[in-house]
Write a structure and sequence with these properties.
By secondary structure, the protein is mainly alpha-helical. It is built from 13 helices and two strands.
Length: 428
Amino acid sequence: MGYGSILIGIAFLFVPSFGIYDFIPDAIGYALLLIGLSKTAQLNNDLQNSRKYFRYLFFLTLAKLLLIYPLSGLNDEMTQMLYVFFFAIAETVFLVPAFSNLCEGSYYLSSRAGCSVSDRAYSDLKLVSKIFIFGRAILAVIPELTVLANNAYREELTVEELNKPTIYDSKYIITFACIALSLLIGIVFYILVMRYFIPLIKDKASYSEIKRRYDEEITSNQAKRVYNSVNTASLLFTFASVFMATLYFYGWDILIDVIAAALTTAGFIMLKNVVNTKKAVILSAVFAVVTAAASGFEYYTAKTYFTDASYITSASMRAYIISASAKAAGFLIFSSLIYYFYRCLCITVKNHIKSPTFDEEGYKNRLYKKCRVLCGAGIAACGISAVSGFLFSYSELFRFAGLICFGAYAIYLYITTTKLCEELSRFI
């Protein structure tokens, strides 16, 4: 029931990063953890809380990955230090309750299913997981603090003393020492993880019992399946809308639209429990191809023609128009996907929501109206973003139109779908 994915996902986490660079992205590990907890989390509140924190961590580390490119271009060590410091603290804040709830929930669920996991393995994992979480954060920050120490130290030096070696000159040695120590702590941690989870994976009897409970309590409950599908799909569409916003850095949109395509595809796959979404999934695949081509051409255009002033000149106008047209084609397809999502929400209202009052028709019409407004707002955001891409040559302020529109739409989408899911939760 997902313990294998959890075990593999944790393997991505104990490999430390090198400064701002994470060569084995933690986001992949958190994605695997979310997949592993997708079923078992519905059987236990602790695992449900753990999955919630791992979801936060997935999007946090995804943002961390996206920021690497602009930060590496800045070549500003102080900014990079703040980047490492911020994400080390943020990840620690979410990792502590995530692992704590994972240990509590899996131990309780497995015990109920008849799996004999030793109390020693459980206690050791809880303790060492906290050491690992705080250790990886501290060891990630220590090398970057040499920049701060160096700046403070040099301010007190005379001209003759500036050539003397400082702690900053040993930054790479300190970095490799911290990486080695972090790997050592990670290996100890992962050994304990395997000692805890491998018995759970090998115990076929408890696996069958957990699966039986899932089939009995979740799969057979149509209302719960619909709620889970709509709730997850709504979150995926919300984050897809965030990535459809345009945030330009050196002429290139760093909020890559291909990620939005992947999120919408996953959202429509989740909605297959509610309605047939085969056409929407195919359109999402087309959307992924178009946005990948658009992002590639936009990056090429920015790399070739961008200057500190602009990259729209008489020489680059043709390339700019092609790039803006490809971007507009992506927005057009995304507006169609928003319409498909609107249809799915309307079908959900029609088939799975009942009025708490006697006016059934009026109540559902109000919900339909909210869905229509949501659809119209999304299509309007797509249209404004597409048009503003062509108007950038008149004013750079048009670059912010797409960011504002989709930022506001993502907030509105989240609020509206959350209220709709609250209506669905009444029937679980």
